[in-house]
Design a protein that fits this description.
Chains A, B: Pfam families: LacI (PF00356), Peripla_BP_3 (PF13377). Chains A, B: It comes from Streptomyces shenzhenensis. Chains A, B: This is LacI family transcriptional regulator. The structure is a homodimer. The first copy, chain A, has about 350 residues and is α/β, with parallel strands linked by helices. Chain A has 3 domains: about 45 residues, lambda repressor-like DNA-binding domains (434 Repressor (Amino-terminal Domain), Orthogonal Bundle), CATH 1.10.260; about 140 residues, Rossmann fold (3-Layer(aba) Sandwich); about 130 residues, Rossmann fold (3-Layer(aba) Sandwich), CATH 3.40.50.2300. Helices cover about 45% and strands about 15% of the residues of chain A. Chain A is built from 12 helices and 12 strands. Chain A has a 6-stranded parallel β-sheet with strand order 2-1-3-4-5-11, sandwiched between helices. The radius of gyration of chain A is 25 Å and the shape is elongated. The structure holds a DNA duplex (30 and 30 nucleotides).
Chain lengths: ~350, ~350
Amino acid sequence: MTVTLADVAARAQVSPATVSRVLNGNYPVAAATRERVLRAVDELDYVLNGPASALAAATSDLVGILVNDIADPFFGIMASAIQNEIGGPGGRAGGERLAVVCNTGGSPERELTYLTLLQRQRAAAVVLTGGAVEDAPHVAAVAAKLRKLAAAGTRVVLCGRPPAPDTEAVALTFDNRGGGRELTEHLIGLGHRRLGYITGPKERTTTRHRLEGHRAALAAAGIEEDPRWTVHGGYDRGAGHEATLELLRRDPSLTAVVAANDSVALGACAALRESGLRIPEDVSVAGFDDLPFSIDAVPALTTVRLPLAEAGARAGRIAMGREEAPPDGIATITGELTIRGSSGPPGH
Amino acid sequence: MTVTLADVAARAQVSPATVSRVLNGNYPVAAATRERVLRAVDELDYVLNGPASALAAATSDLVGILVNDIADPFFGIMASAIQNEIGGPGGRAGGERLAVVCNTGGSPERELTYLTLLQRQRAAAVVLTGGAVEDAPHVAAVAAKLRKLAAAGTRVVLCGRPPAPDTEAVALTFDNRGGGRELTEHLIGLGHRRLGYITGPKERTTTRHRLEGHRAALAAAGIEEDPRWTVHGGYDRGAGHEATLELLRRDPSLTAVVAANDSVALGACAALRESGLRIPEDVSVAGFDDLPFSIDAVPALTTVRLPLAEAGARAGRIAMGREEAPPDGIATITGELTIRGSSGPPGH
DNA sequence: CCTCGGATAGAAAGCGCTTGCTAGAGAAGG
DNA sequence: CCTTCTCTAGCAAGCGCTTTCTATCCGAGG
């Protein structure tokens, strides 16, 4: 039926051990023998049995990448960069590793299940991207899993996610708080005093940090925040659209809307326009992330640029052991305030 | 070190065979015994060894999803839908399958390598998404691989990709030609006679089909196409931006620009605006796919809506054998012309 | 009371590959 | 010319799980 190592060995007139060694290239094999084996492999069209190999060697070449939403370019861009460094086919690295992107949909259960699945596959490494859910039991459960994975020799890297305490996981964290603060400071600097804020999904670290940054900026400027100015939403444009309508209903005198991310900001722009408001003359809008489409919005979006691809690449290299982990296993990556047309002085 | 089936068996005072049966649930086990085993599993925190299981059972629960560009929502949306049906954690289906998204970057070699990797892992199913490269040797190589995969029991489904001849692969194809034609007919109907076209990457089926549809519409309307009106590009906004500038340079009298997809269209809009042209008063723009951000463009993009999520879901179900394949293994999925603000009558 | 059949559980033979150890063959050294 | 290495290649023992075949235990039927 299927061709096995033994078949190749028979054809090349060598032992299975030799074939294995030729294929793995980690043991001296005479050139002539190697040649013969390779020819046999080719002639028989042999394909290694991954599971058998993984079982015998007690390692696999699977690398897991967990993302919250695969349809969101925020994750797509990171995943792409990670995968590139992981050394999948054509990637920068040599080995042929299978990078598997797992879509958790932001659900804690799915996240946990995927981690178990990866543990089951004896994954070589796991990269968790994006914000984490803050529910205490879940945080503990994830930490426990990560510890187990690490114990089994799986390298764990967090990319754009806060550190996991009591864990060997390396963390590359985005400075969401700082970015949020800068953004709002910029708006305040333009003269805004009444700013609406649309958050991401509740219970997410990213959501909380960006909001905290926003509030820190307000506090620093001595602006007292009105509770009506904050609306909880999600990370998609629809959420931004609805939330903006709600904000306008609550306080039509707002002169700026800060969104949890660019997609939300886009939805906000749409809602504002539908309401007959001009951007930025009547209301300024700001996003976060600087995804590719943000520059094409009209007006172009003021936002905080996050080096998604760079962070992903670095995470990938660390996961493969090709780059040293940052001191203490934690590195903070800062965003860059990017001012464009969607923000301007209020009320003119 | 790691807990094995045997450990669990010892703890539960049964044979390894019984534990395996409890875990797989495909053989009668007395309730009391099952109970005992489950408790042992829990107490020892046992995690099945995937490779060992796959080796012994000669099957795995891996499902591969090949995409051309994971950072592009076009693929993200499909992948997400597929994964949901595949029955990954939390998905609709029961089993816990590991859906792995592989990013080929549009490269034929990577595509082939990933297929080999999946074959190596004895994947349960493989879904290939998006347009294919048309290079003859590569098409043959892929077909050969797909045949081999099918022979090994792997179900193969193509989603948004033309059928692979001489293959058992089920194909859900998008009617790119028809969509392209409708779109251009719409523009011609508005009165446009000089239409620029920005293609996707060369040698891709999607690129060719959309362009063919466009030309068919021109021909049907008796419009003779000027070679200068076609610029070859890519699928990202940058390509659209550049290509549009080039189109304007070649023939400033164009009254409409048809783009290979929405991202390209967005880039085109930006370029037009920079050139001081209004949309749609001076130049109409049309995209393709109707990605989420297209409705938020200003003006909102006229495009062809492709039911990405639906198609993905269906592909996923077929891959899992939960839905019957279409007759002859081929189904054509049509897009829906979606007219919005970016297209209007020329020259007013 | 004995036999037979249905339900459960166990024994054991692999699944295809890796790798520690051993063996043979020349090359080099004494 | 024999011993001692250095190279290569083979042997064989698993890796941890699944599954066929067999054994055992009971209650039912004769």
